[in-house]
Specification:
- The chain is of the alpha+beta class and 239 residues long.
- The protein has two domains: 106 residues, no CATH class; 119 residues, Sandwich (Immunoglobulin-like), CATH 2.60.40.
- Helices cover 35% and strands 26% of the residues.
- It has two helices and nine strands; from the N terminus they run H-E-E-E-E-E-E-E-E-E-H.
- Helix 1 packs antiparallel against helix 2.
- The two termini are 30 Å apart.
Length: 239
Amino acid sequence: MGRPPILKNNPQPKMGSCCLWKCHSLPEMPELLQRGGANVICASYTMGLMYFEAYFLVCKMSILVWIFIGSLFTVAVCVAELNLEAAEGENVTVSFKTAGLERADQVKITLTRGRQKKLIAQYCCCVHRGDCDVVETAGVLLRVEEGTFSLLSVRSNNTGLYGVIILTGSNVSEKKVTLVVNKPLYSSRRPPRAFTPKPHNFSEHRWLYAAIIIIILGFVSCGVVCCFRKRKRECESAA
């Protein structure tokens, strides 16, 4: 029996742009084998490519989500700025109590007004000698064991940004407090009062952002799966 004729004008099967580079290189094979082999090669290549694209996209989105969640935790730890208001003549007490404060090597209290920054109180503890020293300016009381510092009989020049820097070994933590001293509306002086501010609660916003990111990741994953199924059906219908 002779070799079956091959139709030279028979067009190549259309498999989509992703398979064309594999579907035009079998001129010596019979027509049936040529079509079947090209379909198998194109389907395998397309499915492998789609699996790789979907896996790569999901991995990249997961990395971005974890980076974003980590940044939220970092912001919640680092951002501890408070806003306080007081009238002239009042005593203001600011709490900076943190875990492990009793092991602190140094505690510095600074006041920043405009471009000027000065040290108003400092606590230094020498581990080798076992003694600790406290240096305070007039009108400032630093109580490290209580985790507070107080400003006595504040005036308008006490308005500014106060910073608390805690050094424990190689760890450094910082807290910032903005104080605004207002002039009294009446001539009579109010009795002194102490402020013990509480830091802002970032947990609700933090978990809200994390939930939004997880929802977005779910939508992206659904889109990738739908795209994968659509391209698979197109390749199967073309085969």
